[in-house]
Records
---
Amino acid sequence: MDAIQVEELVRKVLAELNSQDLEPDSGSVLVGVSARHVHVTASHFAALFGEDADLARFKPLNGGQYASACQVALVSPSMKCIENVRILGPFRKETQVEISRSDARALKVDPPVRPSGVLDGTPGITLAGPHGSVTLTKGLIISNRHIHIPPSFANRLGLEENDFVECMMEGERKTVFCGVQIRVDPSFAPEMHIDTDDANSAGIIGKARAVILGKGADGHGARTHCGHCGCHKKSG
Ligand SMILES: [Zn+2]
């Protein structure tokens, strides 16, 4: 058993422990901070790293995803650049680049806040790898705040896929985040995902937890409505 397999096993056990009803009425979830990253199609990966390249595993993530050992540079139309942006696996049907608002300022681009996979009308950007580059016509987003939960957890809190909730961040600077999308799948361990800007604003360093307060009272509670991104589709 190699180090990656051990880590996957540990994560699986932790996910099971996390799913148990240790706190039956608690809507508390772990917070994971997502740094800027890229999801790629197999053909874009081949263009960036070569036909024989492998999207090698670096670290397992929630829901069967993993951080790969491969990194690219983001190059904006105004030739601003961010290097060493990690690619997540496995391959996707569409290439998607997730950055923070701070990254967007540095790159002089203006992507919208979107759920993962909702890419219509988003701007593109150029990816540069060791073998070649790919210029996307769309796919650059600021990922929305979202929480991955398994069905048992969702049922317990009366939540469904694509509900929007408010969350109290238990950070150094306690903060309530609104418009947090609920994503439900049996493969998910309960975990909230926010970007580095949100994490920094709430003073989150290392492990943190968030408490789901309930569906938003500001119009973000309805399952088919998202005032933050205009989207009501199921995300990928
Ligand atoms: Zn996520």
---
Amino acid sequence: MQFALIARRPTPTNEELAAVAGPGSRWELMTPEEALDVLVAGDVALGRLDVLPTLDGMDDGLWALGALAARGVVVLNDPPALLGAHDKLLTSRLLRRAGVPHPQTWHVRDGRPAPVPRLPVVVKPRFGSWGSEVHRCAEYGELHSALASVRDTTWFTRHGALVQELVTPSGYDLRIVVAEGRVVGSVFRIAAPGEWRTNVALGGVRRAVTQPPLDACTIAIAAAAAIGASLVGVDLLPDGESWTVLELNGAVELTHEYAPWGDVFSEIASVLRRTALERLSLRTHLARDIA
Ligand SMILES: Nc1ncnc2c1ncn2[C@@H]1O[C@H](COP(=O)(O)OP(=O)(O)O)[C@@H](O)[C@H]1O
Ligand SMILES: [Mg+2]
């Protein structure tokens, strides 16, 4: 039986996961094409396709994950789960439907009536990452300028933009990593001085969390379930007495700070391996029952 990480790029997290020595099995890094060449029914694949650096969509390869599943490979973070995380419009709809707290979000496209949201709001790409092209607007003039500044990008032409209610920034957020319905790691991200966005790519720093708040964990687990993800990073912003989910990271990047009490990489590798084996054994039982 083979365990594969399906990705376009060997990121540090993909390499750390692939380096975990499991009992009798390792997760091997493969492109979607390589996976189609070698994986067979009963093997296991974890989708690690990411948002494109151009922000105009996702890595090519969802089609391969679908083909692998049809062939009998157990696919974790399957195409619906990856889309549910990477497409922030879909994330918003899925979270709302599941009753998970999330700021109100509107879709803006050329040729469609523009929403008139209550300010302040944030303008962002539908497939975004690294805090790129995320604009905060306190006045309608700023909203019009932000939309005008992105109008000619390929990502806006392809997907439009999202306008989202601003959750009053507190200078930090909490990222909780959920694997198969369990919290396996978390970290606070502190925004850089003078920066309201918490992204590490924008100078934010990680601070270890000894014990993530229980209410945040419950919300993060509900958010992961809402999109059907096996492994996801859930970003939560403090909101009054509780938390609101801002986004889900389907190809979450991890460091050892996420689980100061253990090893987040080997924990994830073993939780996912166990789930895949349970799914395979369930399949065998069902097949036996039918026969
Ligand atoms: N609606 C919002 N309310 C408050 N802060 C926000 C909001 N949207 C984005 N931010 C800030 O901007 C950062 C980047 O936005 P996010 O939606 O997570 O996009 P990205 O995928 O680029 O990280 C967040 O980490 C957060 O600090
Ligand atoms: Mg983010």
